[in-house]
Amino acid sequence: MTQVTVIGGGMITHDQILPSLYHMQRRGRIGEIAVCSLSSAPLRELANSEILGRAFPGQSFRSYPDLSTPPEESHPDLFREVIVGMPPGNIVVVAVPDQLHYDVIMAALDAGQHVCTVKPLVLKAAEAEIIERKARERGLLVGIEYHKRFDDRSLMARRRYREGRFGEFRLGTACLLEKWYYRESNFQNWCTVENSDAFTYIGCHYVDLVHFITGLLPVSVSVYGIRDRYPNGNEGFLWTDARVIWNNGACLNVQNALGFPDIAPGTNTQGLTMYCAGAGAGALISHSDQYRGLKYAYIDPPEYAEPSPDYFQYVDMGGSGLVPVGYGYRSVEYIVEAAIHLAAEKSVERRREILASIDRDGLMATPANSRYNELVIEAGRLSILNGGRTVCIDYNSNSVHA
Ligand SMILES: NC(=O)c1ccc[n+]([C@@H]2O[C@H](COP(=O)([O-])OP(=O)(O)OC[C@H]3O[C@@H](n4cnc5c(N)ncnc54)[C@H](O)[C@@H]3O)[C@@H](O)[C@H]2O)c1
Questions:
Q1: Ligand 1 atom 25, closest CA
Q2: Contact (CB, 8 A) for 296 and 306
Q3: Does residue 255 line the site of ligand 1, with CB under 6 A?
Q4: Alpha-carbon distance 229 to 290, whole Å?
Q5: pLDDT band at residue 354, thresholds of 50, 70 and 90?
Q6: Distance in angstroms (rounded) separating the CA atoms of residues 309 and 253
Q7: Domains plus CATH for the chain?
Q8: Is 7 in the pocket of ligand 1 (CB under 6 A)?
Q9: Coil, strand or helix at 214
C-alpha cells in the first residue's frame, strides 16, 4: 500500500495535511504515514494533539527524528535520508517553509517519489521549470495544494465563467488578512523580509483563483509592503497591497496582512469580488470567504465566532473518531488519489500521458499549468523590495523584469 511521508510538522500539517492523510489511511487508501521535521518538538505536539487523538483513535505516524530526541537538536538534512529510505513510487508531502520547498521536492523526485506540496511551489520560476522537467522525465506527479480551488464556490464560478455567463473580468479586489496572533507563531522565524511577505504567503491564493476561474494570465505586478516587527524583533512585510494586471487588461487588487484583529470573529478575513462585462451589461462574482452564514456564541469560553463549515471541520458520523470534511480535505485527497493512480502504472510513457491529461484538466495546479504563480511571486518579491515598482512577466523567457 502507498506510503506517505510528510516533510514538515508545523501548523498546516497539524490543521489539514495529517488529519486528511489519517482519514485516507482509515479508509484503506494509504498505508504507513511518516512525518519528518527539523526537530522532535513539533512532532511531539502532533503526537500529543488532543483533536488528532480524538478524531483518529489508535492511529499514529512514524517520527523522524525519533520523539525521544532532545527537542533542541536540529536535523536540517534528515529529510534527505528519510526520502531515500522510502521505496520509489510512494508519496512525499512537502510542508516546510516556502524557501525550502525546492530542495525537498528535488530530493523527492530524485528518489522517484510522487509529490504533493503546499503552495507556493517555489519562489523562482526557473526552479519551477527544473522541477517540471524532472517530474516529466521520470513520470512523477507534482501536485500543488491550492485548496481554495476545491471550494465548491470556486468550481461553480469557474464553470459559469467558462460558459460565458459573466462575460469578461475587468476589475477585482481580493483580501486575505490573517489574525494578529500569527505574529507570535513560528512565522516570525522565517516569514521575514528577506524570505517572504504577506502577499507571497497568502496573496497567491487569490491570484491563483482568478486564473482558475477565468483562465487569464497575469502580466504585471506591483506590490507595496509595509515593514513591521514581529515579537522576536525580526522584520517582516506584514501588510501588503498588490496590483496585478491580466493579459486582457483587467486589474486585480489584493490586500494581505498578518493583522486582522484577534477579537474579530473568525480566524481571518478574506474574499474575492470580480466585476465583469459583456454584451452591453455588467456582471459580478462576489464571494465572502470568511463569513459563510454561521453565527455562534459560546458559553465556555465565552466567545462569539463565525466558523466556516467549508474549509476544514471534524464531524461526528458515528463510530469511533471524527471525520474531516471540507475543501481542505478534498484537495489533499484529490492529489493523493492521483498519485496513487499513477503509482499503480509501471510504464513511464503511460504515466506521462496521465500527467499530461492532469495538466490539461487544470483542476490540480502543477508546475506545467501554473507557472504564472511562481512568476507572480518572483515579480512581487522584486517589486516589494523596490518600493512597489511595476514588474512585468515575460512568458517566453519565463522571467520577470522591472
Ligand atoms: N493556506 C495554505 O495553503 C497554507 C496555510 C499555511 C501554510 N502553508 C504553507 O505550508 C508551509 C509550512 O507552513 P506552516 O504554517 O506549517 O509553518 P510552520 O512554521 O508551522 O512549520 C514548518 C515546519 O517545517 C519544519 N522544517 C523546517 N525546516 C525543515 C527541514 N530542514 N527538514 C524538515 N522539516 C523542516 C519545521 O520543523 C516545522 O515543523 C509553508 O510553505 C506555507 O506557505 C500553506
A1: 8
A2: yes
A3: no
A4: 26
A5: very high
A6: 27
A7: 4-148+321-367 (3.40.50.720), 152-309+374-401 (3.30.360.10)
A8: yes
A9: helix
